[in-house]
Amino acid sequence: MTQAAAPQDILVHTEDSVMTLTINRTERKNSITSAMYAAMADALASASADAAVRVVVIQGHELIFSAGNDIGDFLSAPPSGSDAPVFRFLRGISQFAKPIVAAVCGPAVGIGTTMLLHCDLVYAGDNAAFSMPFVNLGLCPEAASSLLVPQLMGHQRAAELLMLGEPFMAETALELGLINRIVPPAEANALARVQAKKLAAKPLSALVETKRLMKLSNAPLIAERMAQEGASFGRMLTEPAAREAFTAFMEKRKPDFSKV
Ligand code: COA
What we know:
This protein is an alpha/beta fold. The protein has a single domain (10-185, 205-250), classed as Alpha-Beta Complex (2-enoyl-CoA Hydratase, Chain A, domain 1). Helix content is 46%, strand content 15%.
């Protein structure tokens, strides 16, 4: 059973038709536990159902967007089954019909980067550092990133990001088409809000239809790829390479993959 997220770890605030989700666990670099995924999935479901919410903003802190999955949580309670909170969140964000705007500053690791592939507008602080280090953790891509990253930038550039897993900065992300604009970190959340309010003032039915049509051909592919990735990811989490990577992270040492 998923424990409830500490109420302050995911802040949900709705004002002027905009629901803002703030990842707020800075003491653990905004790493995301299953309870936090559950809270975000629930918030998206309620935003979807609530006619008073027209746009969602996802943001972190000026110095950290998210260090990705909480590694201790993954070690002690790896997600099991397609209804695990992380998969529920990923289905929720990928199928969300209304616009989503994101503001990203500082590190955006793993799902911190891949969730952006499902946002409509992304504003980044000039300190944003994106990375998808799945291979380095003995894992495979998630969030349909094995489909969406090559679609966005071509196979070779995607392979560099998904196989080497090295961080790339906001300038590169802009050039690759992952983000819309770079601003000083102190301005990123405010800009996301300004843009969200612009969207909220537009006819929602036209926004929803535009988004649906833009994603029409890809939507079934995304759902299918996410399911396939989820099955592999869930299996790989319990295998020796990932166990070694996670244990090494917790023990603050370099992983030794010589035997896996
Ligand atoms: N899961 C659990 N704890 C995490 C974490 C994660 N993903 N990321 C950071 N933390 C913890 C650290 O263990 C550390 O705990 P401590 O204070 O008990 O030592 C604390 O948060 C601060 O992290 P630290 O690494 O010291 O911060 P930093 O500013 O030097 O680096 C990052 C920030 C995000 C670059 C770095 O923490 C990192 O690479 N994290 C792991 C990212 C990752 O591999 N995520 C999984 C993706 S699937």
